């Protein structure tokens, strides 16, 4: 079919999918600007991040962005659906990558922890310390917020119901949804974007909720009375990949290689306290900063992880079930 | 005839309409990242950030270009349709009116998704042309409504007079009809522009990256941004609408035209 | 001026434009609902069998009804005063309505995020009065308020022409015969306003059931309305067929009610 946009190809520019707000600001300073300086290729951030957009792009051969970053479960799913461009090692120099960086056709970037977060001014005698506490509306009353992601909420429901992190997989969906029913009406905001989560906890729309650790740290650094609970936090990496069939693969691969280099990655993680997965990045970070990152070994031990190979093939089905559950 | 109770209720209703928008203006100049009202302090920082950000400037520019394009296209089409429908009081023609009001019957969300679907196949998503087409179609009924009273008031005897002076059809149209229609055309154009400038749902779906309009950027930014910069944009837009309405009120002079069509 | 070819050109151009560039995309998209390999009506059967769709549709209709009530209660006195009130008051009110009418949905919805928010004036006021912070934002109530805020100007602009048609002399006559204001309202104004009111009510209903922006920003996914459901099917699941089926349902409800609206508005004094 006639595709007007495919006829025009921009040279010297790469479109990078980004999460907006403070994420994009940090990315711009730490990664985009240095990349443009080094290569002359302009970087344009495009929000928001969504796997559905990836599907639509590839299906319609109409690319709004070339490079994205998503959690390994969604990347795995995208690979299953053949939406990811194979890594081009003619452009990417393997020697410049960390030994563990390559995961399928994506490059590991950093770890994001989604943790329980609460306002200390609402709980002067101590706040919730586990997901079971989050479910306890008697001892810890007040409006709650949750990240509106199906697999995260299913997992924390199971943890709240007493399942040990090692035994999470395979996920007992029925048990999870039963548990979720208990908390459904006490969650006033089901947030979907980082900026939104910062606003609701800072302004007190919610007294506790799940939040990405760096966004919570921003709010704390800004003076709000908020505390992060590292117990039972969800640890997920975020991996960069190139959309399959994009007209700008060359620029995209160059960007990919640059973005996981120790220094740019470290500067990005310094601004937003996510844990860099390139070990050499730690050379550029101060110990105080590393203390509040998810990669800190004490935090890793008490957190939990997902199993992408189990979860990814079931993701669509789970999301549908979750959406129906939520809207009913 | 209208008692004090009714007037009081009316004033309360008007307050409901306008107060929230007035409340947002100071928040747009707040020194706090939080959405609190009243703000703890005032500064031009947010305004400065807004003007420094090329994304917002680009979105505003796109909205302007698309608005003007949709307005011109929509008004021309509405003019053609209106002249045919309303000029010569031919009986059967009124029945076709509904056809030109087709977009009114379709919920905007359905039009938006339909355009996203079809334009996606044509590669028209993310283009200003696509949005101009979509906005012109959706705005056609508004243009028609704006032109209708003016067209109905055209005096056929002027045409006959011109004809008897030897004017051709084209000359009659150019020198008699068009000038008489000018107020209606201006109103239709203005309405078409404002409708396109404010239109959000269709833009959210089909504007994409390259044709991002101001309302679309605002809608997405509400969740992405963590400070009241949206309030800053809102104050500017509110100021714009206020200025436009004041201008219109001044131009319309004493005779405030209250439209007689639904 | 309508000779031969030119008389076909005039309606022809806009019609072709509309049909090709509006009618076709809508029809093309809606037809996708029938292309499921499991059968032409498979998506519709799915809609009927899964309770979530009935719940969402029911909730949408309920919210829309609340919106209509609020809109009519606010728009009626506004329109009445604009139509028959003292000149200066009438002009000012009309100005306010016009400014409100031309403000975009997003701006208006955002204003309610601030006004109804936890740091906004309503909660501050409640706290000052010693009350618990009311939870309004991110509920269906907030969505209803937001939608009503958008629709009041529309309703006023529909009501005013029909109220203008009430002959002032009737009001004067009733007054001269000794009727109290309340009696004049009940026996003269209200019955004569009925067609305009029902048109305004139907318009508000028809528009609010399809709203997306305002419920998405002010409400909660827990209580979503049908437009949000359609968007979810597309944005998250790329389920074009189900989205098309849902859209067809929404369109049918809207068309049926719109037709009723046109009949009512024709009686209220618009053009048929």
Query: Unreliable stretches of chain B, pLDDT < 50, 5 or more residues?
Result: 254-262
Query: How far apart, in Å, are the first and last alpha carbons of chain A?
Result: 40 Å
Count all strands of chain B and give the number. Answer: 0
Distance between the termini of chain B: 25 Å
Sequence stretches where pLDDT stays below 50 over 5 or more residues of chain A: 1-8
**Count of individual helical segments of chain B:** 12
Order of helices and strands of chain A: HEHEHEHEEHEHHEHEHEHHEHHHH
List the quaternary state of the chains. heterotrimer
Tally of separate helices of chain A: 15
Helix content of chain B: over 70%
Q: What is the radius of gyration of chain A?
A: 20 Å
Which radius of gyration of chain B do the C-alpha atoms yield? 22 Å
The percentage helix of chain A is 40-55%
Strand content of chain B: under 5%
Main sheet summary of chain B: none
Class based on secondary structure composition and strand pairing of chain B: mainly alpha
Report the average pLDDT across residues of chain A: 92
Walkthrough of the structure:
The complex is a heterotrimer of chains A (about 325), B (about 260) and C (about 270). Chain A has helices at about 5, 20-40, 50-60, 70-80, 130-135, 150-160, 175-185, 195-200, 215-220, 250-260, 260-270, 285-290, 295-300, 310, 315-325; strands spanning about 15, 40-45, 65-70, 100-105, 105-120, 145, 185-190, 210, 225-240, 275. In chain A, helix 8 packs across helix 9 (about 215-220). In chain A, strands 3, 4, 5, 6, 7, 8, 9 and 10 form an eight-stranded mixed sheet that branches. A two-stranded parallel ribbon of chain A has the order 1-2. Chain A contains 15 helices and ten strands. Chain B has about 260 residues and is mostly helical. By secondary structure, chain C is an all-alpha fold. Helices cover about 80% and strands about 0% of the residues of chain C. In chain C, helix 4 crosses helix 7 and helix 11 (about 225-235) packs antiparallel against helix 12 (about 240-265). The longest helix of chain C has about 35 residues, at about 50-85. The chains are: A alpha/beta (about 325), B mainly alpha (about 260), C mainly alpha (about 270). The interface between B and C is large, with 98 and 104 residues.
Compact overview of the structure:
Chain A is of the alpha/beta class. Chain A has 15 helices and ten strands. In chain A, strands 3, 4, 5, 6, 7, 8, 9 and 10 form an eight-stranded mixed β-sheet that branches. Chain A has a two-stranded parallel sheet with strand order 1-2.
